[in-house]
Design a protein that fits this description.
By secondary structure, the protein is an alpha/beta fold. The chain contains twelve helices and 16 strands. The protein has a seven-stranded parallel β-sheet, sandwiched between helices. The chain has a seven-stranded mixed β-sheet with strand order 10-11-12-7-13-14-16.
């Protein structure tokens, strides 16, 4: 290390971590690369001419000492159920900002519970700085603002990628025992996994989605205060959905298109719907996480926040190749009979609560 204060990228040798490291390097950042595997971290550090540190999280003394050289930690090491708490606690003790790219419901609840401690320590905590949360969270804030504060809110994301990293599968496996959840009247309620399937229309066509217990449930509540929230994920192996790419017929590699979606209903029944279109989801995550770092270091506000609560609904539009869509073009398929929200099936007394 050269002694200059910087930020740490933990999990730098992983699939997503390495993408973030390379993107950070291209933007002129010089993060301290850290992770469990010394050989893998050293190889990446040599490639990018960056400092590195082999670091395990089960040694509090070593972990606390590692914070002395940095102002911020970006955690890219999933499952975050195992890495977020020790890193966040070390950050709080050292007065260092904490950011991660996770989307795990239980982790978000733990990190948001640190809000008052973060305020006292002058530390910013932002989980969900990757595609799965930034895309939906900013849309949630946008449609909620459009209806004057959402009473009912739905969010979903469909990622397109060349290759899914192993961290996502591990995170899902480790969090599935907690079961399914939705938010009703401001509180989390259990929901059987696999129930509540609906079909929505994305700019790329129809997509079947089901309620899934992601960090979006906490992030959307944090960003909007909506008491009723459902976070959806695409139904696995849906033959109507190609999660990899959209072949436009143009020469060259396939054009990956990822989407976010949000729909809100206000207390008076007013509704708003919006979509986000971007490129390959891992590339988005690399760019978004660096933008979160840049904004946090430039104008940090102590406390625990979702991305949209920290930086506003338009933050997502600072990510390259990203556009927000208020109306799907006319050539897109019309809504079918399955494109009905759980809001459409709610009894009138629930809609008017």
């Amino acid at each position: 290390m050269n002694g200059a204060r910087s930020w740490m990228l933990y999990g730098a040798a992983g699939h997503t971590g390495a993408l973030i490291a390379r993107h950070a390097h291209l933007r002129g950042h010089r993060p301290l690369l850290a992770g469990r595997s010394a050989p893998a971290i050293a190889a990446l550090a040599e490639e990018l001419d960056l400092p590195y540190l082999a670091l395990v999280l089960d040694d509090p003394a070593v972990l606390n000492a590692s914070m002395a050289e940095v102002d911020l930690v970006l955690n890219a090491a999933g499952p975050f159920l195992h890495t977020a708490a020790p890193l966040a606690q070390a950050c709080l003790a050292a007065g260092v900002h904490y950011i991660d790219i996770g989307n795990e419901l239980q982790v978000f609840r733990t990190l948001y519970d640190l809000d008052q401690r973060a305020q006292r320590a002058g530390v910013t905590i932002i989980p969900g700085a990757g595609f799965g949360v930034v895309a939906t969270n900013c849309l949630a804030r946008y449609v909620s603002d459009a209806v004057g504060g959402a009473q009912h809110l739905e969010v979903a994301a469909r990622a397109a990628t060349a290759r899914q990293g192993p961290g996502i599968a591990a995170s899902i496996r480790d969090n599935l025992p907690y079961g399914g959840w939705t938010r009703r009247a401001g509180h989390l309620h259990p929901q059987p996994l696999g129930s509540g399937i609906i079909t929505i229309i994305l700019p790329g066509g129809p997509c079947r989605i089901m309620p899934f217990p992601t960090g979006d449930l906490e992030a959307a509540f944090q960003a909007t205060g909506a008491p009723d929230i459902t976070a959806y994920s695409p139904v696995p192996d849906d033959p109507a959905v190609d999660p990899r790419a959209s072949d436009t017929g143009a020469p060259g590699p396939p054009a990956y298109r990822s989407f976010g979606w949000a729909r809100a209903a206000g207390p008076d029944g007013t509704t708003a719907e919006a979509w986000l279109q971007t490129g390959e989801s891992y590339a988005f995550t690399a760019a978004a996480s660096i933008r979160v770092i840049e904004e946090t270091l430039a104008r940090s506000v102590p406390g625990a926040f979702s991305p949209a609560a920290a930086f506003g609904a338009d933050f997502v539009l600072t990510i390259p190749d990203t556009a927000r869509i208020d109306t799907i073009p006319a050539e897109a398929p019309a809504r079918g009979p399955l494109e009905r929200s759980h809001l459409d099936h709610m009894p009138p007394e629930a809609m008017n609560a």
